[in-house]
Amino acid sequence: MGRSRGTGSQRFRLFMWIATALWLAGAIAAVIDRDTLNAVAWFAFTAFGALTASGSTERSRGLAYLAIALLVVAMAILISVFLAD
Q: What are the DSSP calls for 11-26, one per residue?
């Protein structure tokens, strides 16, 4: 009852920024480990999170499609690395 209308959106953005920071940490760890494909996948997750958390996907349809494509590519790389090992 006492909540403002944008509260859910603000919580989602905060969650996405936290997830983006964790994905960036994973990407840096993959670079340190010299695991190229995992690093590319985690950087794609980081880019997806940054686009989503910044709200730019709400303003541009092209950036929304780019974010979805980054998410799909990151998942495909991680699944293929998992299946190959």
A: HHHHHHHHHHHHHHHH
DSSP code string of 37-69: HHHHHHHHHHHHHHHHHHTHHHH-HHHHHHHHH
Predicted confidence at residue 8, as pLDDT, reads 67
What 21-28 contacts at long range (C-beta under 8 Å, 24+ apart), as own/partner pairs, is: 23/49
Could you tell me the mean pLDDT of each successive run of 10 residues in the chain, 85 residues long? 62 89 95 94 95 88 94 95 89
Among residues 9, 79, 69, 81, which one has the least CA distance to residue 45?
A: 69
Please report the pLDDT score of residue 31 as a whole number.
Answer: 95
